[in-house]
Design goal:
about 325 residues, UDP-N-acetylmuramoyl-L-alanine:D-glutamate ligase, four-stranded mixed beta sheet, 16 strands, globular
């Protein structure tokens, strides 16, 4: 692997409070929590941790609270190999996500953005961009993403974007900035919102790769030039918590794409990592490369001559 490759991951840094309960309570009812975990979270942090697990270098760009609780979160990320030197510390409440997971794997999430709202394009220093091989924009508003993507693309750096909810809430703004994006990650709902039934319509804006994630249904890649890949990964264990699976997918997809320049192989790595992440108790990938190799063996990818309804339908 190209261990010298540097990923700059831009987005949220959260404190995740994950609660495991036997079932969801009804109103005015209490249930006993079986297990509680406090861990780093946020799409950019999850991505950076997964990149470090893969074996590439990862630098996190985020706005983080000066609250002492965040010190422990940053230390955990550093322990996992993430460079946090450029995380901006500001006064204010930390980003917080409460994840409630039931015994059958269902979950609800309560998100408080806190100082994540203070992220700025200027938080990405030019000297860092000069070293970067890829900039990943993780669930950040398109006005901020566009400015960072523009600076990176002018330097010839690969830019990937996973807009998350903004693909729906700010659809036109996301489409407007696609000329600055090389790899676009969407889920099925987001893809339908942006492109309807014609996925290839998004490639006209200059994308190299469109990646559509379908959770347990696998994923699909449309490559510029009318090449199509689809794949699935059969879990080697029981899914526990799906939080962060999409971020692990993005990280391993991008890392493998840098190493192998092969969208099909990148898709297999992304699928294996995303599936493995569902067996982890927190949104940060449980980094066990032996388990990853076993999951990779349960992953299949095929090249298709033309797209079909599989892209966005079950």
């Amino acid at each position: 692997m190209g261990r010298g490759y540097l990923h700059v991951s831009v987005g949220n840094l959260n404190i995740d409070l994950t609660l495991y309960i036997p079932r969801l309570p009804v109103f005015d009812e209490s249930v006993i929590v079986n297990d509680m975990l406090l861990s780093p979270g946020g799409s950019a942090s999850n991505y950076a941790s997964a990149v470090a697990c893969y074996g590439h270098r990862a630098t996190l760009i985020a706005a983080a609270s000066t609250n002492p609780m965040v010190d422990n979160i940053l230390e955990e990320l550093r322990r996992r190999g993430v460079d946090t030197r450029f995380v901006k510390r500001v006064d204010g409440d930390p980003g917080l996500v409460i994840v409630v997971v039931t015994s059958n794997g269902e979950k609800i999430m309560l998100k408080y953005r806190g100082v994540n709202e203070l992220l700025s394009p200027n938080d990405v220093p030019r000297e860092l961009l000069d070293q970067a091989n890829i900039v990943h924009l993780a669930s950040i508003p398109p006005n901020i993403a566009e400015e960072i993507a523009g600076r990176a693309s002018r330097l010839g750096i690969i830019v990937s974007y996973d807009p998350g909810v903004y693909a729906v809430s700010e659809k036109e703004r996301v489409i407007k900035m696609l000329d600055k994006i090389d790899i676009l990650f969407l889920n099925r709902v987001e893809a339908k919102e942006l492109a309807g039934a014609n996925m290839e319509s998004l490639l006209k804006y200059g994308l190299s790769l469109l990646v559509i994630k379908k959770g347990a249904g696998g994923a699909f890649v449309v490559q510029h030039g009318s090449f199509y890949y689809r794949g699935r990964s059969k879990p080697i264990g029981k899914p526990i918590n799906t939080t962060g699976a999409g971020d692990a997918f993005d990280a391993f997809f991008n890392a493998a794409y840098l190493d192998y320049k092969d969208p099909g192989k990148a898709l297999s790595y992304g699928l294996a990592a995303g599936t493995l992440q569902t067996m982890c108790k927190t949104s940060i990938i449980c980094c066990d490369m032996e388990l990853f190799k076993k999951q990779l063996l349960m992953t299949t990818v095929e090249v298709m001559k033309e797209p079909d309804e599989w892209i966005i339908e079950d």
